[in-house]
Amino acid sequence: MGSFNVAKFGGTSVANFEAMSRCAAIIESNPNTKLVVSSACSGVTNLLVELANGVQDQTHRSEILTKLAEIHNAVLDQLEDSTQAAAEVYTILDTVTSLAEAASIQASRKLTDHLVACGELMSTHLLTQLMRERGIAATRFDIRNVLRTDSNFGKAEPELDSIRQLAEEKLIPLCQESVVITQGFIGSDAEGNTTTLGRGGSDYSAALIAEAVEASGLEIWTDVPGIYTTDPRIAPKASPIPEISFSEASEMANFGAKILHPSTLVPALRHDIPVFVGSSKEPEKGGTWIRHQVESSPLFRALALRCNQTMVTLRSAKMFHAYGFLARVFEILAKHKVSVDLITTSEISVSLTLDQTDTSGGAPQLPEAARIELEELCSVDVEHNLCLVALIGNNMSESKGYAKQVFGTLEDFNLRMICYGASPHNLCFLVHESVSKQAIQKLHTELFEG
Ligand code: ADP
Ligand code: ASP
Ligand code: MG
What we know:
The chain is α/β, with parallel strands linked by helices. The protein contains 14 helices and 16 strands. The chain has an eight-stranded mixed β-sheet with strand order 3-4-2-1-7-9-10-8, sandwiched between helices. Strands 12-13-11-14-16-15 form a six-stranded antiparallel β-sheet. Bound molecules: adenosine-5'-diphosphate, aspartic acid and magnesium ion. Adenosine-5'-diphosphate is lined by residues 10-13, 39, 200, 222-224, 227-228, 230-233, 257-259, 302.
């Protein structure tokens, strides 16, 4: 098995020639890095998603295709010998053109995955050639030969046993000979159809691959020098966290901290692979280590924000002192495959938020058929435009005295739902989207900037 390092570079890290050159320097600086997982160049996946949704207007479709060509041509122009990479990229751009046309006639999830996967397929051709021109033996590998998934297009589930076996057979031997450059985000099902792991899925790909090759470490290179106390774009005084536990980082990812795809840490945790998060722009600044054992476990670690929440409130006077109501509610939700995220109850009502089940990024919807059945039982109220604010920390359910500080800071906010106690690592609540950033900023000032 490979006791080497896996390094993943996100979209901004491979945005252009200069950014890719910085990635190459990071790879060169660690001879133990044998496997590189790359995202699509910054902005490319968004353009491909737009095409996949079906652009009817031919002029607009051409504009998007031109933008895609420009992004990749800008890198090709700076390569010394772009002949082979250009031929590969242009072939993929031709595929994009015909798939975009097909999507404008009839979009489908299968077609979408085929189309959006083209971003990573192109960026890896460019990065491989750039590495070779710096004198590094680099091989591009199509990860669809290893990253086997089910056929749930848009949010495919990895098939771990197959991935492991295929990695052992096809990937590990290649890593002994050269640095392997491969794609994040994409995979293929048993029939050979291209699938994707969902938006932001390259982090997850890298972790799955690191697990399959039994990597000694996983590096996630992005545009910030580590995991911060909150998104630095929301609170400019947020500070980087040098070391954080798997449980704390998983909570952050689950509660929407975009820095890591929510599933990223699951494979790393299963195989106890230490994860490093750093900035490819400023690698000298260091970053965050995610480990099992950490030196400090503060009461407050970080704040995360997840928007596009849908809250469903079910009310029934019959619920008062009755049994079986919740069982009936969940039976209906399960029947309609509605996955519930958070829940709070009172004597006559229950409020819950819906899990994000697709990758559109929009608010999850309560299916009409589920609503009709629920309405036979109780009143149903659905609210959108809500965001979930999560305070993440340690031993929160066993500590006292801090609720006053937290809720005192938020006294001017209308808190729609509060969840606390089930996990020792978080306290979270819903607020209206219009004040969500303000809530994060106020809490950050009060709890983290003292
Ligand atoms: P990549 O393309 O490298 O995967 P992303 O844009 O997906 O990068 O994730 C990096 C971004 O995550 C940062 O630019 C930052 O705005 C955001 N982010 C959200 N929460 C945090 C946090 N707690 N710490 C650092 N960055 C965060
Ligand atoms: N390129 C994909 C996206 O933008 C995957 C990733 O970058 O993680 O969602
Ligand atoms: Mg990302």
